[in-house]
Amino acid sequence: MSGTEPGLLRGARALRGAVAWLAAGMAYLAGWNYVACALFITGDVVGRQFGYSSAATIEVTGYMLAAGIAWGLAHTLARRAHIRVDVWVNRLPLGLRAVLHLVSLLLLGSFAVFAAWAALELVDESLLFDAHDNSALRVPLVIPQGIWTFGILAFCVMIAVLALESVLSLLFGRAEELDRLLGSRTIDDEAAEALEAVEMAREGTAP
Amino acid sequence: QAPAALPPGPKVNVVAVTQPLPTQPQFTRVDVPVLREGLAQRSGGRIEVQLSTHAERNLSGTELVRLVRSGQADIAAATLTTLSGDVPILDGVDLAGLAPDIALAKRIAEAMLPVVNRDLERFGARLMVIYPFPAQVVFCRAGFTSLADLRGRKVRTFGNSLVDFFTALGAQPVSIGFPEVYSALERGVVDCAITGTGSGVAARWPEVTTHVSNLPVSWALAGYMVNVAWWNRLDPQVRAMIEGALREVNEKQWELGAAATRDGLDCAIGNAAACHIHTLSTRPMTEVPATPADQAALREILEKTVLPGFVRRCGARCGEVFNQVIAPVAGVRFGG
Amino acid sequence: MIAVVFLLLLLAVAIFAAATGGQAVPVAEILGLTGVFLLFFGAGVYIAAVLGLLGILIGLTFSDRPWWAFAGQTLWGPSSNFVLVAVPLFLLMGEILLRAGLSDRLYRALNVWLNRLPGGLLHTNIVSCAVFSAISGSSVATAATMGSVALPYFNNSAYSQRMVLGSLAAGGALGNLIPPGITFIIYGLITETSVGALYIAALLPSILVTGLFILVILAHGWTHPLPRPERLPLALKLKALLDLVPTLLLMLLVLGSIYAGFATPTEAAALGVVGAAAFAAIEGKLSFRLLNASAEATARNTALLGLIIFGAYLLNYLLTAINVPQTLAGFIGGLPLPPWAIMACILALYLALGTFMEGFSMIITTVPVVFPIVTALGYDPIWFGVMVTMLVEIAQISPPDGTVMYVLQGMRPKPGPITDVFAGVMPFLAAYLLAVVLMMIWPGIALWLPKVMG
Ligand code: NA
Ligand code: NA
């Protein structure tokens, strides 16, 4: 089967792999950014007991959250973890199911493109206002909003390469691959992840 | 002069987003009767104002200029300091310590209105009215007799000029979101917090604090903006009628500001006879009267810290504007 | 299916009201939008996209304003909201604890004390979930953690597989109800209610629900008796208590720091993360790999929630802009029904939605519309917050769609049909519903503690 795989599809898969790899990198940064966030807030709470407070904690951690959400979007899609209501769709025959997966992805794509456009407009408006926040640091809003927008744009790119690969799979009559690419995480995926985490906990412990 | 009635014509739907919460007297006692009911009645039903508050529209208050500019609302009101991230000069109208009494605050507001509009109109918005909330005063969970006693205490503040002010006092400004302030005061995460006299009572702060100062540190001045393109497009008679309504709003908000300042304090200290606008506190607080030393400290911090801080954030031009427009009224100059 | 029927009924009532009220309600458009909504759901479209696109369609159909010019601000506002920062922090704390192996010790320690009761190990399932909930803010995390620990104990045992799975699912559904909880944070954010007060209000109801669960297991234990394990020496039992210490310390850190005036509820979540990492370090488990895996899982789960928030806030902005919540609140408030009947309808709606919607998306899409009605009826916002959280938790364990049940199904060592989970959770579901009814009759269950402590 793989011997007859069309080159076009192979190329699309390689492209998707590369984007997914970058998206994973962004998601790890997003995750570590939450670790930093916890340290920052803890520092502020403890510092307050000794008469020191950053006076910008609310604003800065808010920006960290925004960046974290946006930079995790693409990776979450690649891991098929965004939530869908799929009670009915999973009972349909493979051919129909594959088409519906693609339709869902394209609908998500149109919402994502709208969100990215709106985010770009927001950055543009903040530039026009030369807007700063009201914290002691007077952070220019363009910086956090720009970082946030970049994450949403990366999400759009992830959707685009996934859509490309899906369309090609469908054209070459490989509905099964499309189902594996876009279908919701199976229950096994969820369980495997939980078990992996528990495995980590058991390491080095005597049985 | 506003027309007393309108000739028949097409209906005018106005979207207005004013005041943070629908329960505030600024909303129930002014916006609802004047803007919604008054305009509908006087125009014979031609002008219909769809009125809502920030909370109902899920807005934080910092984005109101953008709301008006993008045409989501035709009229919007918000406190000037929260808007100052987008339009820095707005902060200068209401600096901490600038106006010890409400009459002076009003004169400063009137003098600054045309000046700030030069900045605002670049963004397609125009300020029509500047109005006050009750005086911003300090609520504490332990006793104090003067501002100097606040040294070393954790004070929940908002906005740059108040942060500068409390830092200069030797207090420690803490930034906590408004919804969390009540429990922060209750548990002692902060020792004190500043807000309007009436707003503090409305947020049930007397339950978690014991002492309230009567020294107005600032006035939380706020303003009604209109979308300029919409305003210019209006039928002239309709426009004149709305303008008249906004003038009425202006008068009533200043009257309310003066009345609500004292009323909020009376409600907080459990003086039932004088508590009409807000709800009477079940746990009466102690009122801490302002001393001449407090007044002097306020003025000194304004000159030495708050004003230079404002000019640093806003730019040299703001210093010039301040000296031209506010200095003659308030008697304080930037740069001596 | 119940949900679809219910929604259609609601729509019929709205149309009837519009027809008799004589106002020009755009019935065709509303019908069209409802159809699109149902079609989207049936086709398995991403929830965030359904919400967002529905918002866009509503804007294009009903709004005469350039609402798109404010869309960026609408998405940015909640993304950068400080109160929501607690969500990834609680998730991160749970991920670290899971990988540090706290859950295993917790389970073993409780087991020593509970396994001689009628129903045996099943009690340990419930109680260990309840205790874990007091440090974790997520139901799925609670079920996944305790499930992965507990299930191996039941290998080749005589216990009813259905009851095992049911009790773990039910225990997981305590995750958000027992403070701290993400649902409360979201609810507090939307309604501007104090999260601290919500936490206190939830204490008695969560004890009530846990108690009812234990009664369910006792009843099962008496009707299906199993041989009791040997009585263990007291010294061993006392020693086992030591394993509870880290959990109790973390509880003390998170809740204690709030009530001792050290931190706000949002900040307490950050302290919890640092505490969890410290605990992992004491166990000798704190490594780059552990933090890295926890960070990735947190980023993924936060992005998943964040995308839904994008869609929900856009939809919410447009619904508010065309005055839907206010109109609906006015309409329902004016119905010739006593308040409790309207409240019962609202609760039934949540129950129906919960059969096919995920809890978090449900709360964020419905509360902005329903909350004004609830306050107009004179109900207490704190009480309603606890009720909604209970209904969200019920949604997580109500077949056919519930994340908690799916996760457990996937972790079964021996495969079997998902209907086992469905059947097993039923008695617990009934107990949970009984608690909701009791809360409806005696709101004091939730409101008494905040009053006493306030
Ligand atoms: Na919890
Ligand atoms: Na469900």
Automatic annotation (TrEMBL), chain A:
Subcellular localization: Cell inner membrane
InterPro entries, sorted: DctQ, TRAP_DctQ
Main location: membrane
Keywords: Cell inner membrane, Cell membrane, Membrane, Transmembrane, Transmembrane helix, Transport
The keyword Cell membrane appears for this protein: yes
Residue ranges annotated for the Tripartite ATP-independent periplasmic transporters DctQ component domain, each copy included: 39-165
Mode of membrane association: Multi-pass membrane protein
Presence of the UniProt keyword Transmembrane in the record: yes
Pfam families: DctQ
Membrane-traversing stretches: 18-41, 61-78, 99-120, 147-172
Oligomeric and partner information: The complex comprises the extracytoplasmic solute receptor protein and the two transmembrane proteins.
Family affiliation: Belongs to the TRAP transporter small permease family.
Function: Part of the tripartite ATP-independent periplasmic (TRAP) transport system.
Name of the protein: TRAP transporter small permease protein
Species of provenance: Siccirubricoccus soli
Taxonomy of the source species: Bacteria, Pseudomonadati, Pseudomonadota, Alphaproteobacteria, Acetobacterales
Automatic annotation (TrEMBL), chain C:
Main location per the UniProt record: membrane
Sorted UniProt keywords: Cell inner membrane, Cell membrane, Membrane, Transmembrane, Transmembrane helix, Transport
Domain of life: Bacteria
Domain TRAP C4-dicarboxylate transport system permease DctM subunit, first and last residues per copy: 35-444
Keyword Transport appears in the UniProt entry: yes
Bilayer topology term: Multi-pass membrane protein
Signal peptide: none
Segments passing through the bilayer: 34-62, 82-102, 122-151, 163-190, 196-219, 240-262, 268-291, 303-322, 328-353, 421-449
Cellular location(s): Cell inner membrane
Family: Belongs to the TRAP transporter large permease family.
Quaternary state and interactors: The complex comprises the extracytoplasmic solute receptor protein and the two transmembrane proteins.
Protein role: Part of the tripartite ATP-independent periplasmic (TRAP) transport system.
The protein, known as: TRAP transporter large permease protein
